[in-house]
Design goal:
Elements (H helix, E strand, L loop, with lengths): L3 H4 L1 H10 L7 H10 L3 E5 L5 H8 L3 E6 L2 H10 L5 E5 L2 H5 L8 E6 L10 H14 E12 L11 H4 L1 E5 L3 E5 L2 E6 L2 E5 L2 E3 L4 E3 L2 E5 L3 H10 L3 E7 L7 E7 L1
Parallel strand pairs: 1-2, 1-4, 2-3, 4-5
Antiparallel strand pairs: 5-14, 6-7, 7-10, 8-9, 9-12, 10-11, 13-14
Length: about 240
């Protein structure tokens, strides 16, 4: 089940105003140009910001996400015949024969690749993505380096913000780590709507796999030529994986 921050309708509607700087997506737009991709599978598309950018450039994109509230936001803000939406997961998309061997590029932006905590679920996702890519198609995703210990910066003191949101008034949120268990990091993301006092809590767990573990999982799923680059928007803090089907 998706975390409340993505699946709760009220939280989904304020997701973009609370996180307006999506310059991280420039990394993936650059890959579109590098590979000459004309069709993209955006796994974990959220509220559709990246898919919208691609559709505006004339690129066909399928945005898939298990959070129907986020997909509803995406549909409302991306008005383009180039964009399609599916509420579900990569295996759901791959189960449709017309989607197999259909895409030039598949992406998992932001922390999407790290939400798969179970190795079997992660492998099934990679296998599904692989089946959706044309021969020679590419998968691109990012993952934070465990050595950077990013979670140590996920505190209320460093992350708290109060944002004036149209139609909602002042909205406050922050992140706070609650547990670190090996590769698993859990944090809370409370959101407070000051206009009426409603507080909605969301809890997320991410897995910080090693680069070698990620490479092995890609190879097990049948990907070739796995390349690991430094993450352009967070140099030294994350990896950008690119693997060819």
């Amino acid at each position: 089940m998706p975390d409340a921050i993505f699946s709760h309708p009220r939280l989904a509607r304020v997701y973009d105003p609370l996180d307006p700087d999506r310059s991280d997506l420039d990394t993936y737009v650059d890959l579109i140009d590098e590979f000459g991709a004309t069709s993209v599978l955006d796994v974990g598309c959220g509220t559709g910001t990246f898919a919208g950018r691609l559709a505006a450039r004339g690129i066909r994109v399928l945005g898939v996400d298990p959070a129907d509230a986020s997909i509803e936001v995406a549909r409302s803000k991306v008005n383009s015949d180039n964009a399609e939406w599916v509420v579900g997961t990569a295996p759901v998309v791959a189960a449709v024969p017309a989607r197999q061997k259909h895409y030039d590029l598949a992406t998992m932006t932001a922390n999407v690749a790290q939400v798969f905590l179970d190795d079997k679920e992660w492998l099934s996702t990679l296998l599904a993505v692989h089946s959706c890519l044309r021969e020679g198609g590419q998968l691109a995703f990012e993952s934070r380096r465990p050595s950077d210990r990013a979670w140590e910066r996920w505190t209320k003191e460093l992350s708290r913000q109060l944002v004036e949101v149209a139609g909602e008034g002042p909205v406050e949120d922050w992140v706070q780590v609650t547990a670190v268990d090996g590769e698993l990091v859990t944090f809370d993301s409370p959101t407070i709507f000051h206009a009426d006092g409603e507080r909605i809590d969301s809890t997320t767990t991410l897995r910080f796999r090693t680069a070698e573990a990620l490479r092995q999982s890609l190879e097990e799923a049948g990907f070739l030529s796995v390349e690991v680059r430094d993450l352009p928007y967070a140099p030294g803090r994350g990896w950008l994986f690119i693997a060819r089907a």
